Hints:
By secondary structure, the chain is mainly β.
Amino acid sequence: MAKIQFLAGVGLAGIAWATPVAAQSAEPESSNQGLSEIIVTAQRREENLQKAALPVSAVAGDVLTQQSITQATDITRLVPSLQIAPAASFTQIYLRGVGTFGANAFAEQGVAFNLDGVYLSRPAAPAALFYDLERIEVLKGPQGTLYGRNATGGAVNLITKRPTLGNASGYINAEYGNYDALKGSGAINLPVGDIAAIRLSAQYAKHDGYFSDGYDDEDTLGVRGQFRLDTGDGFNMNLMLDYGNVGGKGSGGTIMPLLSGNRRLGPSDPAVIAAYLARTPTAPVPQLIARNDGFQDNDYYGAVVTANADLGFAKLTVIPAWRRTNLDFESYASSFLIDVTEDSDQMSLEARLANESARFKWVLGSYYFSEDTSARQFFNQASNGTRINSELQTRSFSVFGEATFSLSDTFRLTGGLRYTRDNKRQVTEAHTLPFVGFVPPGPPAFIPIILDIRTDATSDVDFSKVTWKAGVEFDLAERSLLYATASTGFKSGILYSALGQNYSQPELLTAFTIGSKNRFLDNKLQFNLEAFYWDYKDQQVSHLAPVQVASTPGGPIFGPVFKTENAGAATIYGAEVELLWQPSRNDLLSLNVQYLHTKYDDLRYQAYSTTGPAPVIGCAVSPTSLTGASAAARIYNVDCSGQPLPNAPRWAINAGYEHTFELTGGSKVIAGADTRIESSRYLSLDYLTLGRQGSYMVSNARVTWESASGAISLTGFVNNLENELVFANSLQSPAKAGVVYNQLRPPRTYGIRAGVRF
């Protein structure tokens, strides 16, 4: 805990706009009565954000429209503690360095992603959802009591706009910009008598690729329908059905170092192909030529019922849910072919009893989750490859409780426990396809000799864990809260394809937090401060690693598989400051600064070299005597202890300003600008200079005219004013040591947007 005594020096770091607090704050009231109050449900109950004794940020749904955000990766620029990166059709979420480099059917996130209280398990699931939202909540730190498994680093909650009774209303937004960007969204709310209502909403977003060969495009459709019933006697329910499709060519990547300066040359660009072919090993070793035929056609279906009943002594909440994810994509973003079809069905049922009395607040609940996944995956590097066909099954059950007791009007104690038991099974057929040699029938032709090693992996394993939370909170004044918490979280063990040991153990995180939330100057200045210390043990790291794929009289044979193993123990500590200031009813400034220190106390794993030379890694590397799947293959020990965690910049700052110009007749013009500043960070466990994002600043600006009634608006905007080239992800080629492909965040984009409310 001594490491967080630096707290006092963190707060002064710039100006702000579009911070989590600023972004979710409503427009200042005309009477200038102060900053608006924000209601969140992060602790499974409605409460004022400033009264919630935990580190949580919220972003209003309208801000997503203002910032042209239609996919999960864009949220990074709104929340300093988050780093969200694409990986083919998957989404990798990191919160303060805690996350998962997952890119196959076995992967599970270390930061839970929830839609209206329903946990979405698949790494590809956060897609076609970012429209008609009430808000996004980001909970920082382990949420082991109320959210359970796989919330080691925290949780991201999407809360949709629910139907409102007795109100016929709606809106339409339309946007056009460079790269032929076309985005449209809308919703209509219709009452059904006095006690019911329906809400229909949809979004379509499309733009051309940011890379020279058309990759990094977007073609997303989302449709959502909701029915709400409220009898007025303590019972209400909401039924939601949604469908999404993500198409287009999908994400792209480029060889490092970058070619042609700031030009975004995609994987199938001739210049990138030529650079790839020139790197060793060269022909006659077979070479994979990235093509321009990558695609994604991914479908998402969901249904959830949220029912609440007032039982007198407590409120009962029951949430049955079903979700299906169907993936079909081919990607060359990381220099080789990834060809995946995956069908996943998940079902969950959560039941909670909650009491909201002034003196004693408590919640008791149980949760059941099941998922069945069928996946066909082919990873082809030409000189070697892996084909994995898996049938995966997960069953999880938990019971939990949390209570807050008021010892006085200003002092409260909180405690919580959760017991979770998981069962995971797999039946996997994997084929390791190394090219083991070349026989020349006559120069210059060469014939590859191919060895197909088949591995049949089966698992039936149980994991169980008790997680807990303890906290105190004290009201220093009417608008000042001081709190301290200690909490634990765990991520369930992960399966992978191998003989013998083919699963990791759970990872564990214990977090200590001290925070204060305050409003000053007659409710016109908000100042929140948080210090944290996280002890991260048995971290699951995912990478291309040697696993046993066959047994022979000469001993086991090891082949390369994307494996998740317990390889790391880390210490994470830091502080975050949020400042929001409304000096007048027409001005809004805000600040969010995060200081983050991360270090691997221990990080050791093994790396597989298909061609023999030592892997190119920025850590200590030493050879082993293990036998690979080809005569050329070699296996090495890697020690990266002392390195920082990937995707964990030391400093992250969001800054900006917004001013409202009032015009005659009641209309107004709102001008705003924001910026995000980050220090450098590594993007992967390779710790290579080519896979490192340097410090950068990316700024956005917009001007909106709004009619006197607020029904009509017209906006001009520019995002990434600097046209800064920012890396989102990095992967070293499995076939060519030291050849790195990086994925990028969007370039400068600009356009106009019109909105109508009725």
